[in-house]
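Retro notes, item 3 of 5
We never archived the inputs for the 6-O-phosphono-beta-D-fructofuranose complex last cycle. Fixing that now. Sequence and ligand:
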Amino acid sequence: MPDTPFAPVILGDEPGSFPHSVLAERHPAIIRQVQGALPYGPAQHRALDELLKNCTEGTVEPLPADAPDRDLWQAWGLTAYAGRSWYDVPWLWSESWFYRRLLDAVGWFGPGAWQGIDPFRPFKRAELDAPQTDEELAALDELRDLPEQERARALLHGSLWGNRADLGFRLSAEGAEARDPAPALVDDDSEALWSLLPPAGRGTLVLVADNAGRELVPDLLLIAHLLAEGRAARAVLHVKPHPYYVSDATTADVVDALHRLRAACGAAAEYGRVLWSALADGRLTVRAHPFSCAPLPYGDMPQDLRAEFAAATLTVFKGDLNYRRLVGDRMWPPTTPFAEVTGYFPGPVAALRTLKSDVVTGLSAATEAALVAAEAQRWRTNGTHALIQVSSDLQVK
Ligand SMILES: O=P(O)(O)OC[C@H]1O[C@](O)(CO)[C@@H](O)[C@@H]1O
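Structure as it came back at the time:
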C-alpha cells in the first residue's frame, strides 16, 4: 500500500473522546447491567467489582498459567501490554480484553456451574422476543410479490440497518435509540456487490456476522434469499466463539434466531425452512474461528482464515467492529480509498456497516464536507449513517 497515508492507531487515552468514554463509562455501565441481569453469587459479584476497578484505574494484568487461551493472548499482544494502563494500549485491544476479563469474572471458562453461561443472554433474548421483531418478520410478507431484485435490495438494506443500534450502545446510552435516524448512505457500492452475486451464480458467500437478535435475523434472511434464488450456491456464516461486545452473535444465538424464524408465520417461516435445510445439507455452515474474537485487525489474520476468505466469491463484513478490524482501527483521513486499506484482503470483500466509531474510509470529499457541515464530527459515532463498500476487480462505481 505505498500511497496509503499514515494514520495513527486509535487509543482510548484522550478524555472527552469517544474511545475514552467507552473505557471510562460504557464498560462500567455494562458491568453493572450484567450484575443485575443474572443471579450471580458473591464470588462473581466480587470479581465483577474488581474488574470495574481494574478496567478504569488499573493496568492490564497477565493471565494465569492455566487459562485456556493464554498462549493465544500472549501472541495477540498480552506480553507487550501487561502492566500498562487500559487507556494506553490500542483501543481495539482494550475493548477485547474487557470482554475476555468479564467472561472470566462470571465463570464462563469454568470449571463450575456457570461455565458457558452467556452473561449477555438476557439482553439478547429480550431483543429477539420483542414485539418489534414480530413486526419486522410480519413485514416480510409484503415483499413476497416483488420482483427478485427488489426483494434482494430490501433484504440487503434490512441487514445493513439491522446494525444500527447494538446492545452495547443501548445498555450504556439510554435514549440513544430515540434519536432521529438520518438514514443516509454515505457510500453505496451495492451495484458492485450484486455483480458479485448474480442470479444463477455458483459462488460461495462468506458473511462475517456482527450482532445477534435484530441484526442476525435480517442477516439470515439475506442468506436465505441468496441461497433460495441461486445468487450463492453456498454460504458460510462466521460468528463469535464466545460472548463478545455484549450483543455479538454466537452459535447459540444463531440457533435462537432460527427457532424464532421457524416459530413465525408466513414468509418468515419459509425463510426459516430454507435455512434449516441448507444447514442440514451443508449449503450453509456456521464457523466460530478463534480469530473472530481477536483484538487485532484482519490484516493479522492467520493462514487458515486467509485461505478460507481467498476461496470465497465474496466476503461480507457486518457492523462497526468488523469494519474497524477490516480497515484497521486507525484515524484514516475519511477519503482514504476503501480498496487501498483492504488491499491485503485475499478476495472480494464488502462492508455493511452503520457508523458507530471514528474510523471511516472511502468517502468522497463532498460527502465528508456535507457531513461535517451538518453534524460536526458526530456523524462518525451516532449510528445514524451507514455505508456499503466493496473492493474487488469487478467494482462498478
Ligand atoms: O455492533 P457493532 O456495529 O460492531 O458496534 C460495536 C461498537 O461498539 C463500540 O465498540 C463501542 O463500544 C463501537 O465503537 C464498536 O465498534
